[in-house]
Amino acid sequence: MMFSKAINRYYIKFLPLFLLGIVSLLVVDLAQLEIPVIIGDLVDSLEEFRAGERSAAEAREAVTNILLTLVLITVLIIVGRFLWRIGIMGGSRRMTYELRDDMFDHALKLSARFYSERKVGGLMALFINDIEAIRRAIGPGMIMTIDAIFLGVLVLGRMFMLDFRMTAVLVVPATIVAIIGIVIGNKMRQRFREAQKAFEDLSDVVQESFSGIAVIKAFVKENHEIKNFLKYNQNAKDKNIRFVRMMMFMRASVRAIVSLSFVLIIAFGAQLVDLTRGTADPFTLGDLVAFIAYFNMLIWPMMAISMIINVRSRGKASLQRVEEFLDEPVEIQDPDDVIQIDGLEGNIEFNHLYFKYPDEQAEDEVLKDITFNVEAGEMVGILGRTGSGKTSIVDLLLRLYNLEEGMLYLDGYDIMKLPIKRVREDIGYVPQDGFLFSDTIKNNIALGLDADETPLDHVQQVAELSDVHHNIAEFKHGYDTIIGERGVTLSGGQKQRVSIARALAKNPPILIMDDSVSAVDTSTEEKILRNLRTVRKGKTTIIIAHRVSTVKSADKIVVIDEGRVLDVGTHEELYERCAFYRELVDRQQLEEEAEVS
Questions:
Q1: Exposure of 364 in the CB half-sphere (CA atoms within 13 A)
Q2: pLDDT tens-place string over residues 542-578
Q3: C-alpha to C-alpha distance for 13 and 512, rounded to whole angstroms
Q4: Element (H, E) at 373
Q5: Distances from the Cα of 30 to the Cαs of 73, 128, 163, 292, in angstroms?
């Protein structure tokens, strides 16, 4: 059982379940306390019958009453255990369900900076291993803690009432168990954190290896990756063995102390029965049997101490990791003075924009004094060499990073004042990598809409506009074809065209294509661009490219190099007055002629 700012509210939410479980557990513990007394009475009744102090009828009646009482107590214990499992175990599972759900919701709000610094494998370890460790600390940990305290105290009280001398024998071993738990608990927590970190590193290696399996095979690096995996796997093994060794040492120590205590009870108790026989306050054989039964009940709380330390050590370490994740600030969010609008028309204004990625160490900005306008309904090309800052402009339009106010306007509104959801809903985006999900082609294209309610005709229409319909029609299951992870079963050009169809399906006021036709041939590129000019008439379209042919027919072209705007104009205007653009055009024409020849 643990408490912290990350989970306290879940205890409140599921308080009725936990109260049901705790009350049921306490009732079961109280019922169990009567069993040793009843067994002791049974032994004494049989002993009195053997000694001739009771008749057969009296003994039979006493035994029958005792057995009926045992049956009733057994039924009560069964029902109580059923209820505390529903309450405590069910409550812990509901708590971790809510916690994992809130973690995922928080993950969706975190900025691109966070994901550039954290690896997928480590995040997966948080959502799987750490959440399970927290659940065990809350559910089983609560049960063991209550049993160890409540049942342990009550059992010791009953043992003391039977004979204080016998109970005193257990004080020393019980104290030793407590000291072992305190000393070893902190070490176990630290070792578990090390084991979880090793598992996180191993998950990262596995995830990256599987994601890059094609590259590994192409460069014949299988043996290298196997050696790398073995290194991380060995590290995870060593860290877990260190933790398990500490845990088993503690368990073995507790078991040894429990066994020694059992020997002391039998030896001392047998002498006590013999010495007090015939006295005014004898310690009978039935008392010894009851005392041994109580001690057997006390073994569980004593053993539970080591288990509590184990699950709490794991749970506390995992909870600390989860809290660190939940404490990550949500950097990209709506301001208090957000301006609510019905929708965007497509006017864009860059006003002396400077930008530097928050995780970059360099002092220089990636975008410097960017100034140009895009009128609603225009098709604008942004042209530049690799690394010139084209994608950074897209990131800012999609509100993936924060800007200083007054640098970027949409429809005359500062983008920092507009609702993030509205901005992203009204912008269709086709990224460079064309990320696709492991789902049907139809659901991938209808991602920006309600996939279940989107008619197939609409999906086919936008697929035809992106010139991918004929490829999909050739698949055995057509639009119901399940594509592999990241769309691995499609070619690069097919992935790009499906991504274009996905953006067109939204029919957004603003469409941004970030080098999205680089993997298709020239004729396909021309067909897609021709379709875009037709279907996107009256809507803003921004095409980012490094090939002049892609943006040549745009209403205007923005030329960028080293994070600065060199010039803005039509193809003819730029060819006449911009030396950088003219050199780019001439060089690409020579390359095309060389390829043809």
A1: 7
A2: 999 888 888 888 999 999 998 999 999 999 999 999 9
A3: 44
A4: strand 367-374
A5: 10, 37, 20, 18
State the Cα–Cα distance between residues 556 and 559, nearest whole angstrom.
10
Rg (CA), the chain: 36
Residue pLDDT, tens place only, 498-540: 999 999 998 899 999 988 887 777 888 888 888 988 898 889 9
Measured over the CA atoms of residue 179, residue 183, residue 185 and residue 188, the dihedral's sign is: negative
Q: Which residues pair with 7 in a beta bridge?
A: none
Inform me whether the pLDDT recorded for 292 exceeds 60: yes
Say if CB 62 and CB 180 are below 8 A apart: no
Report phi then psi at 437, rounded to 5. -95, 155
- The residue whose two tokens read 């860290």 is 239
How far is residue 176's CA from residue 49's CA, in Å, rounded to a whole number? 42
Residue 407 and residue 352 in contact, taking contact as beta carbons nearer than 8 Å: yes
From residue 254, give the alpha-carbon distance in Å to each of 167, 401, 525. 18, 55, 74
Backbone phi and psi for residue 261, each to the nearest 5 degrees, phi listed first: -65, -40
Provide the phi-psi class of 401: left if phi over 0, else alpha when psi is between -120 and 50, else beta. Answer: beta
pLDDT single digits (tens) 84-117: 999 999 999 999 999 999 999 999 888 888 887 7
The pLDDT score that the predictor gives to residue 250 is: 78
> Which candidate, 307, 310, 393, 382, places its Cα nearest to that of 354?
393
Q: Residue 490 has what DSSP assignment? A: S
Encoded tokens for 259: 């066994």
pTM over 0.90: no
Q: What is the DSSP letter of 341?
A: -
Contact 546, 514 (CB under 8 A): no
pLDDT digits (tens, 9 = 90+) for 388-443: 888 889 999 999 888 889 999 999 999 999 999 999 999 999 987 778 888 888 98
What is the average pLDDT across 61-70? Answer: 82
Q: Which residue reads 């993950």 in tokens?
A: 107
Angle formed by the axes of helices 492-505 and 522-535, nearest 10°? 0
Residues 421, 333: Cα–Cα separation, whole Å = 10
Q: Could you tell me if 99 and 318 are in contact, meaning their C-beta atoms sit under 8 angstroms apart?
A: no
Distance CA(181)–CA(184), nearest Å, equals 5
Contact 369, 352 (CB under 8 A): yes
Contact 487, 436 (CB under 8 A): yes
Which two three-digit tokens encode residue 301?
A: 């709380």
